[in-house]
Every structure is written in structure tokens, then in C-alpha cells.
Amino acid sequence: MPSVLPLGDPAPSDGRLPEQAASGAASRAFGLYVHIPFCAVRCGYCDFNTYTATELGGGASQDAYASTAISEVDFAARVLEESGLPARKLSTVFFGGGTPTLLPAEDLARILRAAIDTWGIEPGAEVTTEANPDSVTPESLQLLADAGFTRVSFGMQSAVPHVLKVLDRTHTPSRVPLVVQWARDAGLAVSLDLIYGTPGESLDDWRYSLETALSYRPDHISAYALIVEDGTKLAAQIRRGEVPGIDDDDHADKYELADRMISDAGLHWYEVSNWSATPEQACRHNLAYWRGDDWWGIGPGAHSHVGGVRWWNVKHPTAYAGRLASGASPAAGRETLDAETRSVEKVMLEARLSSGLQTAALSPSGRKAVAGLIADGLVAPADAFRGRLVLTLKGRLLADAVVRRILPD
């Protein structure tokens, strides 16, 4: 959730959605994202809409946040009903941040309970929280599991102390195996998030991080290339020459190493940056994003999407709480996507999945480009002959270039 909000049309104060949003809704899954915008420290690479305690003012309070988020749950239910959306149970819930587990586990449980009381939840639904390794205890994880959480995604990032230092991470590597075991003892599935390409990280450093993460036998691994965002502390450090810059070839080498090692450990890629031990352990919430399902985003700066209507909340927790307290929508802006835009986004997102993209969904020029992609080793020939565009390893490294070639001119 980048800290800079997109441009868009004004959002109505009552939050009412256009008729388009209700069309076909009964056939789409409905999920909930809950943004917890608090962190103990701001990591130098982070561009997300997060705040430390010293950055908050004007009455914004972590203590009151659960109640404020619950008020948006109530608001969302009213808007969806008044906009003609059918009643749908939650298929996934995802608490992200920030660091959701900086809030007491009781508060996270309260928000989840309010959402379930409001919409209901599908049997076997996935309920995830992100967590920093130093923000949980055995007791807090057990409380979350008892409340209905099924999965925890730990921000491990690296197993190498000097890499964690550059990233401004506050946990020590020795903490990770402890929290993984605590989560397993509570009955939670475990995902580990890793970052590669940190300035000063060698290929051997990255190999050690992968070996260490895999030794914990996680159900799921995410491995993301570090992106240096303008305005971050890390961007300033690189600009001043205090740390080395980012190298695309280094990123490619590290991605290839990650795919080989993670695959050899028995996990399978299902999205360019994500691997799971079984198809059932793929992150269903993120798959809903990539497949264009519906979700409501709770919290400051949170984004939502329902039936081709996308909107985003005001950024600051104080402004967010004030909007809801006055009975107004917290949305800062929104856009209604036309058929062409939705088609383009479908190509951009589904092309990243191991299940691939139906070539029938491409424009005539896009279908014509597939032969060249096969010749260049970017697309799997057997899948293409069966009518699906599936990226090869080389294609995953050049996923953005592949998408540009299959989109209409």
C-alpha cells in the first residue's frame, strides 16, 4: 500500500456505489483487507502508509483503532446493502500493515469478530495476519488462532544481521525459528516473507537466508526484489553514496537461485514472487486480488475493489477516524474502470500466475505475439498450444516485458 494515493474522481460522502458494482457480484468472491498502520520503527526501504507512535498526533490512537476499524465494517455493510450488492460471506480476511500485531491480539480478534458477525464467513476461509517476529508471543498467537485466524505471515526478510541492519529491521535472526514454532503450536499455517537485492547483500548472503528460511519448513514463501522508492531513507542513502545502488543483474541471479532452492525444497511457484507447499496453501487472499474478485479495504489508505469500482481511503489515521465519526465515507477518491481497462488489468495480473492466462482473452495482436514469446523462451510452448499463456522461468524474470508485448498497441 504505497503512501502516495492515486488521482481519481471524488468519492461520494455516503459511499454509494454505481450500478456496475452489483452486476455479477453473486459469482464473485468477497474478501476483507484490514490495514493496521502502526509500526515500532519505520524501515528505511518502506513506502507504505505506516506511522510510528512519535509520528502520530492530533488524537490518533492505537488504543482506539480497533473501534474505529469496526465502525468502517458497519459503514461498509450499509453501503454494500444500499448499493444493491447481494449478501456474501467472507472468503478471505487479511490483516496487513504496518505491523498488525503491534495491536493487542484482543483488538485484532475484536475486528475479526465484528466482520464475521456482519457478513459471516465461508467454511474453511483463510484468515491471515502479517507479523514481525518480535511482535508476537506464544500467548498472542494462540489467542489469534482461537479467534479464527488460520495463517500468519512473518516478515523475516533476511537471516543475515548486516542485511537486516540496512533494512532497519528490529528482530534478530534467532527470533524467527521461535515464532515459527509458536505459530505451529497454535495451529497456524506459516508464511515467511523474504527480500532480496538489499545493498551490500552478496549472493552467498541470499543463499544463506534461503537455506535458513527453508530449514523452518514453512507452508509458503514470498520472495520480493527490493524496490527503492523515492522519498525513503534508503533512497537518500543510495543517492549520497552511503550504500551501493540496486543492480538488475544481481536481482535476476538471486531470483533464479530462489526459484531453484525453493522448488528443490518441495514448494511450487504459483505467482511470480510466491511459492507454496500445496495449492491449498497458496495465499487465497492475494489470489483474489490477481483474479479480480471483490474486497473491501478497512483502514487509512486502504484500497477497495467491487465490480470494477476501485476506491482508496484518506491516508492519515486522524482524518480517517474523523470521517467515520461524522458518518461520512473515509474514501479520498475512486475510479470506475471501463471494459478496456479491466481487460488490460486482467492480462497484467493473470499473466503472473502459474495457472496462466487464457490466450482467448488477448487481443488479436496479443495472440499474434505469443509465437514470438515462445521462440524467445518466455512462454511455455505446451501450455500455449493448449490455449494458456504460462511464463517460463526466463519469462518470470521478464514478466513486465512479456505483458507489454501481449497488450494492445
TrEMBL record:
What GO biological process, any one, is recorded here? porphyrin-containing compound biosynthetic process
Function comment: Probably acts as a heme chaperone, transferring heme to an unknown acceptor. Binds one molecule of heme per monomer, possibly covalently. Binds 1 [4Fe-4S] cluster. The cluster is coordinated with 3 cysteines and an exchangeable S-adenosyl-L-methionine.
The record's listing under Pfam families reads: Radical_SAM (PF04055)
Classification via SMART domains = Elp3 (SM00729)
Q: Where is this region: Disordered?
A: 1-20
- In which domain of life is the source organism classified? Bacteria
Q: What is this protein called?
A: Heme chaperone HemW
Question: What are the alphabetically sorted keywords of the record?
Answer: 4Fe-4S, Chaperone, Cytoplasm, Heme, Iron, Iron-sulfur, Metal-binding, S-adenosyl-L-methionine
Q: Which residues cross the membrane?
A: none
Q: Which GO terms describe its molecular function?
A: 4 iron, 4 sulfur cluster binding; coproporphyrinogen oxidase activity; metal ion binding
Statement: the UniProt record of this protein carries the keyword Cytoplasm: yes
Q: Which GO terms describe its cellular component?
A: cytoplasm
**UniProt similarity note:** Belongs to the anaerobic coproporphyrinogen-III oxidase family. HemW subfamily.
Radical SAM core domain sequence ranges: 24-268
What subcellular compartments does it reside in?
Cytoplasm
Is the keyword Disulfide bond in the record?
no
